[in-house]
Amino acid sequence: MQIPVTHSFFRCSAFKLALLPLAGFAASSLAVSAQTLISHYQLNGNTTDSGSIGADGTLYGSAAYTSDAPGNYTQSLDLTPNSAGNNYMEANTGTSYDGLTALTLTLWVNIQGTLSNNERFVSTLTPSPYDGFDLRVSNNHSPSGFNTSFNVNTINNPAVSGNFSANDSWAFIAVTYDSTLGSNQVSFYTGNESTAAAFLNSGNQTGALDPSSLLRIGGTPAAPTSDRTPPAYISDVRVYDGVLNLSEIENVRNAVFAIPEPSSYAAILGMGAVGMALATRRRNR
User: Domain of life of the organism in this record (predicted)?
Assistant: First the structure.
């Protein structure tokens, strides 16, 4: 027999209490910005794209997963096996980025060795004439104090960030790009697992994104057979189709803490079972 929604089972306080953790988790999983999340690779043991494009990725070289991950994630992309190899994740995003005049790129990185110039974190840059965007290592190479460069449709005169620190620890990196501004179109933000996101510095780039169809994490389509892989773990890569403000960027940083630990799932299910049992017992009295 179908139980009507007005039944005491659903009005039971124990049942409502049992659902509270699930409700909190659902609320924490809502969109963090009014901008569209077009690409989202949690890299939490898979290469699924949960963004609007839905372009699932494929691992190449010796890229694998590690149990070292930020927040409540349980795995991240491990680019360190066979450090001399070209290890990366690649996805075909088609024409989805073409013509974008603004974007926000966010990711978590954990550096496991000395960095080198031109190693890529995230890139859609094509071979010459170098269309697309590109986030790579630049200047300082120390894991505890390295710079990144952000390019749009070029490999020259990039916007260069201040220092990031991720020496065997997780750093949050965010880059915003707004081509409609007269200057300082690129802004860099930083944070970590215990420190909120904060503005770092700005730089210049111009123009809408020219056509590029491949996205690589840990490499670049601009050098398809060259080793451009940083000795790093990477997690929760996101691309939005507009500029996020600092509050929204902080929401993105916090998103990796919104997924309950495995033990929390058990607790939630246990509370649900207790609530249902109590409701059923009350109903049968």
Answer: Bacteria
Q: Which amino acid is at 19?
A: L
Let me know how long the chain is. 285
d(CA 277, CA 156): 65
Q: Are 171 and 109 in contact (CB under 8 A)?
A: yes
Phi, then psi, of 90 in degrees rounded to 5: -130, 140
pTM above 0.85, yes or no: no
Cross-strand bridge partners of residue 198: 190
Alpha carbon separation from 275 to 1, 10, 92 (Å, rounded): 21, 10, 46
Instruction: Quote the distance between the C-alpha of residue 9 and its chain's center.
Output: 40
Task: For residue range 149-192, list pLDDT tens digits in order.
Answer: 999 999 999 999 999 999 999 999 999 999 999 999 999 999 99
Q: Which two tokens stand for residue 60?
A: 């190449």
